[in-house]
Amino acid sequence: MEAEDFAGMLDASLSKTSILLAASNNYPKQMIVVFAQAAPEEVRDMFRQLFDEKQDVIDRIVSFKEKSVTLLDRYGGGAKNHYQTENAISVYLWLRHPDKYYIYKYGEIKAAIQKLGGDAHFVKGRYEENLRNFYRIYDEVCAKLSQDDEMKRLLQSQLTDTCYPDPALKTLTFDFGFYISRYLVNSTPVPTVPEPEPIVSSGKSNYWFLSANPRIWSMSSQAVGEVQAFTLVNDNGHKRRIYQNFLDAKAGDRVIGYESSPSKKIVALLEVSQAQDGEKIYFKKLEGLSAPIDFAAFRDTKELQSMEYFNMTQGTLFKLSKNEYDCLMDMIREENPASRVNESYAAYTKTDFLKDVYMGEDKYDRLISVLKRKKNIILQGAPGVGKTFAAELLAYSMLGKKDTSHVSLIQFHQNYSYEDFIMGYRPTENGFVLTPGVFYEFCQKAQQHPKEDYFFLIDEINRGNMSKIFGELLMLIENGYRGKPVMLSANGESFTVPKKLYVIGMMNTADRSLAMIDYALRRRFSFIEMEPGFKTEGFKAYQKRLGNETFDKLIAVVERLNEEIKNDSSLGKGFCIGHSYFCGLENLKDSMVGQMREIVEYDILPMLEEYWFDSPAQVAKWESELRGVLA
Predict the structure, then answer these.
(1) If you count Cβ atoms within 10 Å of the first and of the last residue's Cβ in the chain, which end, N or C, has fewer?
(2) Roughly what angle, to the nearest 10 degrees, separates helices 86-96 and 127-145?
(3) pLDDT, tens only, 373-410
(4) What contacts 445, CB < 8 A, 6 or more positions away?
(5) Concatenated DSSP letters of 50-113
(6) Separation of alpha carbons 85 and 31, rounded Å
(7) SS3 state of residue 282
(8) Gap between the Cα atoms of 79 and 179, Å rounded
(9) End-to-end C-alpha distance for the chain, whole angstroms
């Protein structure tokens, strides 16, 4: 940490991290070294604070990430992302203290906990909650592994003189999680679509690398199961380059689909569905990649240097050896774990929704009707009315099951941009590469299954600069323009928002620091008011289950408080106290009052002090009433 050339030291110390800090579409090492070269003392201080064991680890990770935003603004040179994610920061911690920390990877821990059957939930966008669950769960796993003598002997048998001995088994723990997520959760057979009917053919299978111009044939937008015919001659009537490959390809051959410039990414897995008939050859899409593999990620791979694609100046269909195909598939599966064909999800219905979300049946029916008609809605309301909770369960109720693969949740903030949302250039070791954003990728995923519903949830939607984030998609998200193509400014590609993709935003009406939502976007959304659900049948049933007289009295006071807030000309119904503050309580004899007292003291009263900052007598009145119930 005290090296005179801090940037040089940092670069050298991270030089062997390989894919940990330089994976496809992820460049944290490159960016942190750039920052260190521009502001060595600032970055040195960031690492000092990150390694300060006197502070809470989650707070340290959050602080490191927040300071990276400032560095990006000052020294990013136009880059749109600092890449100092929870994953990257956990790697720094592990490198410094391998006896104490694990490497965090959202997809890995989520898959592992699903297999292990734990009680924690991992949801994209809930960064701090995910991290706390991660450390808690891996500490439990590590404790179990420390009691497993066979596992420890297996570890010792694999260590060499150059290996870290891992006495605390921290590295073994996250390797264990990786093994579960890679080989148990996604064990074979794992195609994402039903296997095609057996094809009778003789001879061994061939493997192919198919390169197509996305402006002519967008494999990423093609629906899974759809068959694309491809002519054997070009527009000038000449045979396509490496014509023999088209003659050699036969039904059932596996194909890796690559989109050429400007995309330059592996985007799909296909098969030859029908051999050439003298005029055309036919390709069926088997799977779209939610995380496409950039050209830069496989270009310099040693095992691929003899690929026909790299050694031919032009062409469309290129041979792959079995080893080359397997190498590419390993890279693909690293970023795109295969899902099970018959993966089962718990059923979820309207009845379940009304039991979990304290909303009346009429309100639910109207909500569904508006969403289906408009395609885009915003749930707005006071703090604690359960907007995000309701949005996620609303999606599941329309799907009829808790299918997380059809639902994506993000959160807007002041620095969120078009490049994060749609597409933008991001740095690599050899320059910048055009990289898709979260909404673009989700639309491409939904486009592959045009008959299925997909839901994109945006928490704190009014915290972002809406026109800046959505760009030309302001038009495309309108119901009347769904399915219609527009040319993206970033790469000139034709892009559409699928007809069965629903956008649900959430907006807190009580946050005085937020500007009103952009009128251009307001016209494209319907706004649904979410109100406290104390009077709903669901909440009444919850009260009855608790059977606690003090709780009933407290809720009665809160309802009177809400009436006063509603009638206050400086506040209004958007500032009422929501029911979710009081959900999830357990009527335990020794702790029920304590739970309610914590809610009053640390949630409700601070909010009232903010509401009536210029009226201390008003705060004192309700403070007395609320505390009086719990006396």
Answers:
(1) C
(2) 40
(3) 999 999 998 888 999 999 999 999 999 999 998 999 99
(4) 288, 290, 454
(5) HT-TTS-HHHHHHHHHHHHHHHHHHHSTT-S-----HHHHHHHHHHH-TTT-----HHHHHHHH
(6) 12
(7) strand
(8) 34
(9) 54
Tell me the C-alpha distance between 274 and 269, whole Å.
16
Distance CA(492)–CA(525), nearest Å, equals 27
Both structure tokens of 234:
């070009």
Contacts of 348 (CB under 8 A, 6+ apart): 393, 396, 397, 399, 400, 401, 402
- In this structure, are residues 25 and 291 in contact, taking their beta carbons and an 8 Å threshold? yes
* Residue 621 CB-density burial (10 A; 0-12 exposed, 13-18 middle, 19+ buried): middle
Beta strands in 470-509 (DSSP E): 486-487, 494-495, 501-508
Angle at the Cα of 451 from the Cα atoms of 449 and 457, rounded to 5 degrees: 70
Residues 6+ apart with CB under 8 A from 247: 276
* Spatial CB neighbours of 210, under 8 Å, sequence gap ≥ 6: 255, 256, 257, 258, 270, 283, 316, 317, 318
194 class by beta-carbon count within 10 Å (0-12 exposed, 13-18 middle, 19+ buried):
exposed
Structure tokens at 42: 């600032």
Report, as an integer, the average pLDDT of 320-328.
91
C-alpha to C-alpha distance for 329 and 331, rounded to whole angstroms? 5
DSSP class of residue 347 equals: B
More confident residue, 198 or 551: 551
Least confident of 74-88, 366-380, 450-464, 474-488: 74-88
Residue 369 CA to its chain's centroid (Å): 27
Distance of alpha carbon 451 from alpha carbon 500, whole angstroms: 7
DSSP state of 480: G
Please tell me whether residue 2 adopts helix, strand or coil conformation.
coil
Please tell me the distance from the alpha carbon of residue 468 to that of residue 414, in angstroms, as a whole number.
11
Residue at token pair 């269909």: 317
The CA distance from 379 to 504, in Å, is 7
Task: State the residue for tokens 């984030």.
Answer: 469
Question: Rounded to an integer, what distance in angstroms lies between the CA atom of residue 500 and that of residue 483?
Answer: 9
Element (H, E) at 135: helix 127-145
Query: Smallest Cα–Cα separation from 493: which of 293, 224, 217?
Result: 217
Show the 3-state SS of 234-281.
CCCCCECCCHHHHHHCCCCCEEEEEECCCCCEEEEEEEEEECCCCCEE
Residue positions counted in the chain = 631
Beta bridge mates, 258? 211, 266
